[in-house]
Amino acid sequence: MNGNRFSEKEEPLTSMPKGKTGSYACVILVNGRGYMGDKKGLVKIAGRPMIEYVLDSVPDEVTDLFVSVENETQATVYEPICEKYFASLMRMEKTQYSNEYEKVKEVLKNVPSSNVLILPCDMPCITLEFTYFLLEASKKFTAVLPRMLDNNVDFSLASYQTDPLIEAFKKYPEMHMPELIKKLRNVLYISTNALRLFDNKLGILYRVSSAADIPKVESILRNRL
Question: Cα-flanking dihedrals φ and ψ of residue 195, to 5°?
């Protein structure tokens, strides 16, 4: 796990005066694209809605828990689960985002806490040990970005310090997240080899994108019992 410093030829971005609370938030991202659309997080895995496995992985240290929704349909179908987990609905400004990192950008602008853990609703094999590490690492690093199996970064599975990101959004308002992250210092990228410390078979990175993925996910969860 190596920290990478960027922006060597530019002035580093520094934190804004603290306008956020010194608490920790977690936002579960829901979107209406792909398999099952608005109800993706409700896909049953071993008899339970998929999003519940993600919610179960949220560390106790989190004080502000949100499920992000893009429209009224999503708000309606996820509200009962939010009530069950004492989570709040976070209504996004747009009804649909062209990509997940633009939604992440919106979340970081609006979350009330100084550190935020962001998780996708379709990764039910994620573990508490892993999410706890992500949140703890955000106390030291501006952004904590695990690499996926294809070696790319997924900004919807990460943790962030919100103030440096908000400052960057103001300084580079038109810049997309992949380029903007390179303007920050003290970013931690976690290699897939390092992720094997949490799950040797990397089941924590497994996403449900079709009905065919469900048996595989159920097998992963069953083998952990």
Answer: -65, -20
The pLDDT tens digits of the residues spanning 165-218 come to 999 999 998 888 889 999 999 999 999 999 999 999 999 999 999 999 999 999
Running DSSP on this structure, what letter comes out for residue 147?
B
Burial class from Cβ neighbours inside 10 Å (0-12, 13-18, 19+) for residue 83 reads: exposed
Cα–Cα distances in Å, from 26 out to 22, 39, 180, 209, 220?
14, 20, 22, 22, 24
The per-residue pLDDT for range 192-201, each reduced to its tens digit, is 999 999 999 9
pTM reported for the whole predicted model = 0.86
Max intra-chain CA distance, the chain: 53
Q: Which residue has the tokens 């094999």?
A: 125
Amino acid 7: pLDDT: 31
User: In Å, what is the CA distance from 197 to each residue of 46, 105, 129, 133, 213?
Assistant: 26, 29, 10, 11, 24
Residue 86: helix, strand or coil by DSSP? coil
Domains belonging to the chain, first-starting first, are: 2-7+21-223 (3.90.550.10)
Express as a percent the part of the chain with pLDDT over 70: 86
Give yes or no for a contact between 93 and 61, defined as CB atoms under 8 angstroms apart: no
Q: Which residues partner with 88 through β-bridges? A: 66
